[in-house]
Fold this protein.
Amino acid sequence: MKCHEVDYEIFGDDMQTVEVELDMGETVIAEAGAMNWMEDGISFEAKMGDGSQPDIGFMGKLFDAGKRAMTGESLFMTHFTNQVQGKKRVAFSAPYPGKIIPVDMAKIGGELICQKDAFLCAALGTKVTIAFSKKLGTGFFGGEGFILQRLLGDGMTFVHAGGTIVEKQLQGETIRVDTGCIVGFTPGIDYDIQRAGNLKSMFFGGEGLFLATLSGHGSVYLQSLPFSRLADRIIQHAPSVGGSSKGEGSVLGGIGRMLDGK
């Protein structure tokens, strides 16, 4: 496996954009709708599949696209190619605030397992497929279901996550993590689910019924603000159809809005 060698630059802080630099003939693949801007000379085409195996035929591409659809992604990926002499740039970002993690796949063993919507873009040759959770408990209570994304390659891959990103190197130890805070991990990491303390802690601790445990040897990427947590908070405080706030529907909430001029 040999991916295209692309250069890149990341802009911004909390709402980042990655600008990928392509030499003539180089291609970067991305999720549909992720592109922000591109320079003249770059062509783009929606294709079924990631293009990592161009000789597998239509049925093979359809099968690979169907596996991606199981993770909630589009059947098609967009391929951006520099068609002219010189270097040209194309930029990508995710649809919600967060950080972009550049991952040199050759340095981590050529494989990264990540949450279903983490993949943003990658050098052509990167294979985007699925990984199944091997344990029933992990599938039912892990926050990501039975299906995760598996990225394979030896080039640059860019994944996106919410809030601040922390990379931890595990050398045989174990860490316990909120299930939604896992962005991705390398194959040497064992991913499991354990009950969050005693019954009182589970129901009233505010940390959910289960926590993820990550152990082994390898890299783990964690996010401080999962999109699901952000969406829940927005929905909680969003006004309903009748104009009242779901999160502040009490008498005290009404008084607070009056004091705020609302």
Q: What stands out?
A: The CA atoms of residues 139 and 146 lie 4 Å apart. Helices lie at 57-69, 136-141, 199-204, 227-237, 251-259.
